[in-house]
Each structure stands twice: as C-alpha cells, then as structure tokens.
C-alpha cells in the first residue's frame, strides 16, 4: 500500500498570494531605509557579500525583527538546532506583530520536523508549504523512503533555493541553509559559505521567484500532512523563548542595531551599486518527466555570461562533477585562451565523501586542459585543539566570469544542480564584487588552507600544501581510510547523472 501510495498525486487547493508591492514596501521602515539609498542610484541594485557566518545569521535575525508587512523565507534545510530555532522565534514574533510570514521548505528535510512546523503553522499570520512532497508513508522513515523509491523519477527532485525577503525591500540569497553549521557555530562541522544581501530593483525580481514557487502546484500546504491545535504556536513560542533565556540560541541583540541609526547608515554606505539580475530554474523543471528542457534551467540563462568570457573563470563549489560534457567545454575554453580555476573540497574536508568519489576520476582530464585545481583542507572534528566555529568544509557556490561579473547562489557544479534540483542566484556586473570574490577564493586557495593538485608526467596526481612553515608534497590523496572507502563505493554504481 505504501508503494502504491508513493505513485499517487495530490490535488490540493491552496490560496495564491503575492509579494508586497514596491509602492507599499516604501511605507515600511526597511522600504524607506532602502529607498533613501536607491534615490542616489539609477536602475541598479545595492549589494554586499556576506562571507562571515555569524554576520549572516545576525542580518537574517535583524530583517525579521524589522519586518512590518511581509516575511518570505525559502530554504532547502531548516534545522531544529540553536540557530534554526532562534530564527523560527524571530519569524513567530514577527507574525505576532501582524507580519504575514510565508515559509517554503523542501519536503525531504522537513518531514522529521513536522510537529514543530505544524505548531509554527498554527499561527493565523503564518503559512508553511512543502515543495514536491512524498504524500504517503510520512509517519515513519522507512515507509517514507519506500514511497520515495516507488516514484523516484518524480520525487528525487529537490527545491534547493535559498531566499530571505523582508517587506519586499531587502533580500538575502546564496548558499546558506538555516542551521548551526551554516552560521559557523556548530561544535563539529562548520561551512565556509557565501550570501549576497541586496536592496533595489533586484529585490522585486527575487520576490517574483519566491511567488513562482509558492503558487506552484508542487508547493503543498503543510496542513495536508500535519496539523496542530490553533494555539499550538503559543507553546512553541514559550519553548523557543526558554531556549534563548538559557543561552541555547545565538544572541540576536547585535543584529537589531544593524539597520538603525549609525550602524544602518554604515551598512548602506558599504553597499556596492551595480546591475544585477536574479536567475532561477522554473519550478516546472521539477514537475516534468525525465530530463527537463534545457530552457527551464539556470544554466540556459547563464549561457550569455559563458559566451562573454575573455581570460579566466573561477568556480567555487563544494561538489564538482564535470562529466564528459564539462570536459569538452573546458577544452573549448582552453582553445579560446580562457583559464579555469577551481576551488572545491578535498576528500578530508567534504561533508559527502561519496560525491567526492564521482569527482575524483575527472581531475586528470581537468588538469590536462590547463585548469588550476585547489582543494580545501579539512579540520578533523576529533582534533582536541579544534575551536568551536572553526571552518572545516566549503559550501560556497559562486562563479566569476573574468574579473567583472559574478554569479552567486545555490548552484553546485554538478549534474544534480543542472538537471534535478531547482536553484537560484544573482548575476552581477561589478568589478568591485568580482575582485572581492577572487580575494575570497585566494584566501581559500592559500597553501596554508588548501592543497594544490597538479599532474605529474606519469599522469599521477600530486597534492602540495604548507603546514607549520614547511612545504608538504604527497602522491597519496589525503583523507582517512573510511572516507576513501565511501568515495570509491559510489563509483561502482552507474548514477553519476543523479549526483
């Protein structure tokens, strides 16, 4: 019965809704705050890169605290940990002030938090929807995954977008999910990640992307699967408040000052004003059978940026699986004199060793075409001297086209992001932000933080790094035995196109 249920579809009637209009947004505090800066710049947007995890958390908390009309949050993962619960508390407090809160989650990572989310959803000003849900077997992990397998071709597709928009005036998008490791406060694993905070015309476009997903038939109200009594949100708010009182959540007090007074003016003054467009996969990409048309993908929209490349391209991605098509394109770039630089995770740093196994065989081909390859070193969680908040893995997803154009968002350099996930990002024409992205990459590619991978004359690989002031070179890939075994195991399966 579970398997048959996994093949069924769900006809759900849900009420459409739209982002706050731009005119109405200007009558909010944040709308007026952003508008005073926009008036000095014609038809361009103001943006700042957010690479520091605690700052990324504080900005989101501040945007929730300053919301007056609407708060739209779209994410692949919302953890039930310290930062996840702290941000839920900020959203719930905004709803108490009369703010309409729309929370859109991918189904795969929301199932085990249904009771908490149902309590959150019980507030009259809040609605939670899950994208591309498995409709059967949700009560237990085993039955859920059986139902997923029964309709795998349709249900393995994931909404990977990350977006936070307040009053259709200020937006944050990039690579971060909502959880401790993405804000660099986890006790074991912390990610190097990157967001863009934006004001100006591009915010309305980002809100349009949210609406296109929120109003799509694949976005199903959570109440279809889980419900709570009408006042359950009150108990949840009390519990979340106890978290904060006990010090189990990050203090958001510094965040409240970021967009008011002198600190708010400094933040506006730090924005880089430049042309920017929001690019996203059509949500219908996740609804088609088999491979979606290329025209539904972000990569189709990025084609012009790839054509305009002159000298060099930078790819920063935690997962890199070029496939043969990518190698063929790399040959094309080499023939044009364009050099590729890649920063990704080493085997010892990746949070998914199995994906590293799909990437590893392609390294010689990439290096033969002149690519420069850097792999971030890991910091083993077992190391006794390791400090809480120390970066141990790369999660940034960004591309630099030469020095003056960047794409920053949720898109990994792998087939899953191209074909099976939905993704979102900003394409920005700015030499200043381009230089900032290259500077961040150079920090990650420093010999003290990463390995440079090169190709020997006998086609073997060499890893070179610097520790304690000494150069270290090895022909054995760094990483423990268990990680090597997990990386190699995946190569036995013909599933590279799904990774």
UniProtKB/TrEMBL annotation:
Q: Which PANTHER family match?
A: CARDIOLIPIN SYNTHASE, CARDIOLIPIN SYNTHASE C
* UniProt-listed PROSITE patterns: PLD (PS50035)
- Protein name in UniProt: Phosphatidylserine/phosphatidylglycerophosphate/cardiolipin synthase
CDD domains from the entry? Answer: PLDc_ymdC_like_1, PLDc_ymdC_like_2
- A GO BP annotation: cardiolipin biosynthetic process
- UniProt organism field: Modicisalibacter xianhensis
Q: Domain PLD phosphodiesterase spans what residues? A: 155-182, 390-417
UniProt-listed Pfam families = PLDc_2
Q: Give an example GO molecular function.
A: phosphatidyltransferase activity
- InterPro entries in the cross-refs: PLD-like_dom, PLipase_D/transphosphatidylase
């Amino acid at each position: 019965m579970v398997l048959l249920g996994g093949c069924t579809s769900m006809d759900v009637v849900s009420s459409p809704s739209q982002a706050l209009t731009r005119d109405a947004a200007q009558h909010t505090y944040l709308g007026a705050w952003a508008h005073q800066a926009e008036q000095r710049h014609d038809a361009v947007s103001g943006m700042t890169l957010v690479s520091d995890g605690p700052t990324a958390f504080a900005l989101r908390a501040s945007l929730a605290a300053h919301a007056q009309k609407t708060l739209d949050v779209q994410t692949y993962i919302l953890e039930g940990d310290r930062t996840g619960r702290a941000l839920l508390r900020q959203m719930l407090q905004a709803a108490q002030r009369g703010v309409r809160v729309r929370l859109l989650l991918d189904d795969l990572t929301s199932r085990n938090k249904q009771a908490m989310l149902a309590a959150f959803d019980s507030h009259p000003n809040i609605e939670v929807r899950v994208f591309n849900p498995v409709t059967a077997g949700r009560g237990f992990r085993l039955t859920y995954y059986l139902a997923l397998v029964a309709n795998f071709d349709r249900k393995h597709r994931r909404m990977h977008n990350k977006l936070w928009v307040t009053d259709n005036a200020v937006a944050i998008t990039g690579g971060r999910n909502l959880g401790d490791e993405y804000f660099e406060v986890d006790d074991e694993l912390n990610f190097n990640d990157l967001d863009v905070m934006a004001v100006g015309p591009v915010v309305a476009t980002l809100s349009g992307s949210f609406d296109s997903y929120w109003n799509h038939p694949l976005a199903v109200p959570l109440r279809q699967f889980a419900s709570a009594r009408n006042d359950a949100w009150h108990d949840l708010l009390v519990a979340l408040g106890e978290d904060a009182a006990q010090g189990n959540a990050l203090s958001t007090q510094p965040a409240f000052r970021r967009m008011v007074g002198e600190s708010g003016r400094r933040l506006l003054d730090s924005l880089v004003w430049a042309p920017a467009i929001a690019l996203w996969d059509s949500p219908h990409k996740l609804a088609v059978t088999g491979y979606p048309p290329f025209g539904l993908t972000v990569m189709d929209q990025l084609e012009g940026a790839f054509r305009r490349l002159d000298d060099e391209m930078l790819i920063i991605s935690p997962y890199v699986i070029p496939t043969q098509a990518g190698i063929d394109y790399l040959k094309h770039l080499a023939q044009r004199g364009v050099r590729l630089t890649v920063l990704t995770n080493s085997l010892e740093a990746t949070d998914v060793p199995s994906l590293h196994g799909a990437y590893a065989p392609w390294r010689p081909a990439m290096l033969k075409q002149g690519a420069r390859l850097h792999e971030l070193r890991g910091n083993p969680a077992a190391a006794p001297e390791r400090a809480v908040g120390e970066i141990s893995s790369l999660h940034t997803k960004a591309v630099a086209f030469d020095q003056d154009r960047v794409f920053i968002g949720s898109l990994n350099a792998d087939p899953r992001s191209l074909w099976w996930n939905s993704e979102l990002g900003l394409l920005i024409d700015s030499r200043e932000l381009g230089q900032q992205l290259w500077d961040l990459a150079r920090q990650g590619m420093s010999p003290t933080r990463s390995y440079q991978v090169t190709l020997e004359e006998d086609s073997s690989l060499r890893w070179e790094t610097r520790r304690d002031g000494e150069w270290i070179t090895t022909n054995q890939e760094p990483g423990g035995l268990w990680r090597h075994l997990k990386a190699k195991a995946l190569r036995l399966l013909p599933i590279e196109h799904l990774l």
